[in-house]
């Protein structure tokens, strides 16, 4: 499965993301992205999901808006690599041995944004996406910017 998590207004500075599974045989990949200029009251829109489906073309349509930023993640059984669709900025593309692979990307918001990927082979996949809402200010809207977090993700 795919899960998207959020932390509103985290402390400045470096931090550690630790994921612990009760079943040691679980294989997982993960990525993290930090955003600025996000609405702190209502930071996210409605999560959209698709799958499980077997193909080489994970895709999900996300309701969004201009000035927002859409983030999505996809995961698949077995090994493989992803190529994000046009207009998407890849944030991670990882695999664990031959057990699982996952990716994440962002794309500027519009009324509806289709987050799609091409997998290197046909696999059973799932995907989710959500609109990250821009902070509301008087005058021109600031741009939400995203950057992958550099460091260790421990599994």
The total of beta strands comes to 12
Strand order of the largest sheet: 3-10-5-8-7
Radius of gyration: 16 Å
- Portion of residues within helices: under 10%
Which overall shape is indicated by the principal axes computed on the Cα atoms? globular
Explain this structure to me?
The chain is mainly beta. It contains no helices and twelve strands. The strands form four sheets. It has a five-stranded antiparallel β-sheet with strand order 3-10-5-8-7, with no helix packed on it. The protein has a three-stranded antiparallel β-sheet with strand order 4-9-6, with no helix packed on it. It is globular. It starts with 16 loop residues before the first strand and ends with a strand.
Question: How is the topology of this model organized?
Answer:
Layout: E1 17-18, E2 33-36, E3 48-55, E4 59-63, E5 69-77, E6 82-84, E7 89-96, E8 100-108, E9 112-119, E10 123-132, E11 145-148, E12 153-154
Parallel strand pairs: 1-12
Antiparallel strand pairs: 2-11, 3-10, 4-9, 5-8, 5-10, 6-9, 7-8
